[in-house]
Amino acid sequence: MKAKKGFTILEIIVVATFATLLLVLFFIQKSNIDAMQRDDNRKTAINAMYYALEESYYPAHGYYPESISEDNIKVIDPALWTDPSGFNIGDSFSSYSYEPANCTEGKCKEYTLKAELEKEDAYVKYNRN
User: For residue range 74-110, what is the model confidence (pLDDT) as tens digits?
Assistant: First the structure.
């Protein structure tokens, strides 16, 4: 009698299960890495806004603005005003927010910059002066 060549059903099921498990783990990890990258991009944008306010705007004007945008803060890359979801700072669905405080006639003494992150708590920067 001749020996049969090939794989048994059990061997095929074990290999398919193992391959499926590896694929699931890969996509979960890829999703986590992508979220961490978006969080890093948000932190970079908030830091750019913060340093633009502290190093450029405040020394030139002596106060902080009531709102920020690429119109009144021109020293940073315009792409940084848009969060990874495609919303600009100030939009209701944006993960970025600018909250001025102690304002009189459009001149503010304080502010809070914030980015809502996916994998960490919110990233917050307060005025330095």
Answer: 999 999 999 999 999 989 899 999 999 999 998 999 9
Contacts of 54 (CB under 8 A, 6+ apart): 127, 128, 129
Number of neighbours of residue 63 by Cβ within 10 angstroms: 18
Say if residues 98 and 109 touch (Cβ distance below 8 Å): no
Are the C-beta atoms of residues 65 and 57 closer than 8 Å to each other?
A: yes
- Residues 107 and 62: their CA atoms lie apart, in Å, by 9
Using CA atoms, how far apart are residues 47 and 39, in angstroms rounded to an integer? 12
Residues linked to residue 100 through DSSP beta bridges, in sequence order? 111
pTM: 0.82
Domain ranges across the chain: 9-126
Give the residue ranges of the chain where pLDDT is below 50: none
